[in-house]
Amino acid sequence: MTRRINVKERAEAQSTRMSSEQQAAIRMVANDLHRLNQSVMRAVDAGVSVEIIRSARHHGGTRSWGDLLVPIIIAGNAEEPAPEESLAEG
User: Fold this and answer.
1) 20: enclosing H helix or E strand
2) Which of 25-29, 67-71, 75-79, 84-88 has the lowest mean pLDDT?
3) Which of 32, 40, 75, 86 is the Cys-Cys partner for 81 at CB 3.0 to 4.6 Å?
4) pTM above the 0.90 mark?
5) Is 60 part of any domain?
6) How confident is the model at residue 51 (pLDDT cuts 50, 70, 90)?
7) How many folded domains does the chain comprise?
8) Domain that holds residue 23
9) Can you tell me the distance from the alpha carbon of 47 to that of 78, in angstroms, rounded to the nearest whole number?
10) Are 54 and 88 in contact (CB under 8 A)?
């Protein structure tokens, strides 16, 4: 049976193979995602439904890539979409 490594251990192991510039970029992404999650919760608490979907993929040219995101906003007391409706195509 293989031992499962938790997220923190995996992130620490990966960060030892990253340059300081890469580590700073990842910290920025993590901080921005935390703020995004807080904003989504605030919007939901205010009565707005929010779905984040991938709009495109950015390729860095050195085998690195990242998903670009856009929000789908539904104001008011809208019903939750069926699972197949909430998945972005692609």
Assistant:
1) helix 20-45
2) 84-88
3) 86
4) no
5) yes
6) very high
7) 1
8) 8-75
9) 9
10) yes
Extract the tokens encoding 35. 């703020």
Strand partners, 71: 52
Confidence band, pLDDT 50/70/90 cuts, at residue 1: low
Cβ partners under 8 Å of residue 73, min gap 6? 43, 48, 49, 50
Sign of CA dihedral 15, 17, 21, 26: negative
Q: Is 28 part of any domain? A: yes
Tell me the two tokens of residue 6: 């938790």
Closest CA to 65 of 73, 56, 74, 53: 56
Closest CA to 44 of 73, 68, 70: 73
Whether 86 and 51 have beta carbons less than 8 Å apart is answered as yes
Residue 86 pLDDT more than 60?
Answer: no
Average pLDDT over residues 62-86: 80
In a domain, 1, yes or no: no
